[in-house]
Design a protein that fits this description.
4-stranded mixed sheet; Rossmann fold; 3-stranded mixed sheet; 2 domains; elongated; single chain; alpha/beta
Length: 208
């Protein structure tokens, strides 16, 4: 993603000085060109500051029912980690990053959403006999293809574990701004699909 940092601003000033030297002696002409260039630099700086925040989660009634069907006892959810520690944003095209609110790591968002869904299904308890932890091995998206991709490993306090790979497809928008907004808005539905894949996996019962 392009950024205008201190070094680039210094470089911009050198270019401005170059413009002043090489342009005709007409002062008005010089200043118009210089002001135009400065405006260009400012616009690039503003564009580079654009970001796309992931929207708050919405409870899925379908997922709640599925959890009640697949899990017949309360469970606890432990720590969720990531192969890229504290990862909370991913660059989107040349516009700006798709990011979480307050830089909360993606892995923590997944954990919080899983707990929320378990609570809605009356299947969550911090005092439960079984505790499940998670590790986000991989997370990325392709805004041009309209795809979020995840690889996640879950492990039980009984020692059993398994890994799932999941993809979520969403509508593609070709414009940079619209495409990145679509990508950010698709994150929560993508996580709900990931959770569905976890609890419907044939190995999930071994964690309980």
């Amino acid at each position: 993603m392009p950024r205008v940092n201190v070094d680039s601003r210094v470089a911009s000033m050198f270019v401005v000085q170059f413009f002043i030297k090489v342009l005709p002696n007409n002062t008005e002409c010089k200043m118009q060109r210089v002001y135009g260039f400065v405006l260009y630099v400012l616009l690039i700086s503003l564009v580079s500051c654009v970001s796309y925040s992931i929207q708050p989660s919405i409870q899925s009634c379908k997922l709640t029912s599925l959890i009640q069907e697949q899990i017949d006892s309360e469970i606890n959810i432990g720590e969720f980690t990531s192969s890229t520690p504290l990862l909370s944003s991913i660059p989107c095209r040349a516009v700006g990053p798709v990011k979480t609110s307050n830089r909360i790591p993606f892995a923590h968002i997944i954990r919080a959403l899983l707990i929320e869904e378990l609570k809605a299904a009356n299947r969550y308890s911090p005092e439960a006999k079984t505790t499940i932890i998670g590790h986000l091995n991989y997370i990325d998206f392709d805004s041009m293809a309209g795809t979020w991709k995840f690889t996640m490993t879950v492990k039980s306090s009984n020692g059993e574990f398994f890994t799932v790979r999941e993809s979520f497809h969403y509508e593609v928008k070709w414009g940079g701004d619209a495409g990145c907004k679509k990508t950010a808005n698709a994150f929560i539905p993508a996580i709900q699909k990931l959770i569905t894949s976890l609890i419907t996996n044939s190995k999930f019962s071994s964690l309980l």
